[in-house]
Amino acid sequence: MRTPRGARPGRNAVNEKSEGRLANSSSPYLRSSVHQQVDWYEWGTEAFARAKAEDKPILLDIGAVWCHWCHVIDRESYENPQLAAIINQLFIPVKVDRDERPDVDARYQGRHQRNFRAGRLAAHWISSA
Questions:
Q1: Where are the alpha helices (DSSP H) in 2-101?
Q2: Are 63 and 70 in contact, with CB atoms under 8 Å apart?
Q3: Which CATH number fits domain 17-126: 3.40.50.150, 3.30.450.20, 3.40.605.10, 3.40.30.10?
Q4: How far is it, in rounded angstroms, from Cα 27 to Cα 8?
Q5: What pLDDT, in 10s, does the model give residues 15-50?
Q6: Are 63 and 30 in contact (CB under 8 A)?
Q7: Which of 40, 67, 55 is closest to 128 using CA atoms?
Q8: How confident is the model at residue 14 (pLDDT cuts 50, 70, 90)?
Q9: Contact, 34 vs 15, CB < 8 A?
Q10: DSSP per position, 23-47
Q11: What is the pTM of this model?
Q12: Residue of higher predicted confidence among 12 and 39
């Protein structure tokens, strides 16, 4: 069944919180995720403090509004309510716009390419310690 035009599917307390965190972002990529049920944080001290306090790893998603595969992973993974619930339970999810934070992109993509001699990776798991 299709969602009626203008309706916001999957509304719940989790994405009400993350929507508040992402809705005013300067990044179109981050704003495009406000409807997802993943409890996204922007890169910053709030996310890392929560990860440390809850002793959870960070799920780091690095992407861009122009990136086709970033939208594919959003649609096929982060918009899946069951997967979103698992992510929210096990991780502190952090979304980064690679155009706004090229330093973060270079750090984690560079490490991935050095370690695996492979192309780009949209999601990384990092320790909160």
A1: 13-22, 28-31, 45-54, 68-73, 81-90
A2: yes
A3: 3.40.30.10
A4: 20
A5: 555 567 899 999 999 999 999 999 999 999 999 999
A6: no
A7: 55
A8: low
A9: yes
A10: TT-S-HHHHTTTTSSS--EESSHHH
A11: 0.74
A12: 39
Number of Cβ atoms within 10 Å of the Cβ of 105: 18
Q: Are 69 and 28 in contact (CB under 8 A)?
A: no
Q: Is the pLDDT of residue 96 over 90?
A: yes
Domain residue extents for the chain: 17-126
Tokens linked to 102? 């090229």
Sheet harboring 41-42: ordered strands across? 41-42, 92-97, 58-63, 123-126
| Two structure tokens written together for 72 | 């594919």
**Average pLDDT value for residue range 81-100:** 95
